[in-house]
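Give me C-alpha cells for this 75-residue protein.
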Amino acid sequence: MSCNLTSITNFPTRIQNTSASAIDNIFIDVSQFESYTITPIINGVSDHDAQLLTISTDYSYVPTHRSKTVRKINK
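Here you go.
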C-alpha cells in the first residue's frame, strides 16, 4: 500500500478581516481517485469554511435480491 497523499484544497478555508489561509486540508491519494471535485461551503457561522469532497467512481453497486420461501409446518 502506498501513501501518495496530496493536499487537494486549493482555496482559502479560514478567512478573517485582513487575511485568508488554507489551514484546513483534505489529503487523498490522487492516483487512486482520478475524478474528484472539492468545493468550498461558506457557512457564515465561523471563520472556518467547510469543504465538500465528491469522488466519482465507475463502481456501481447492484444489490442482489434473493428471496426465500419458508413454510412453517406444525402439528
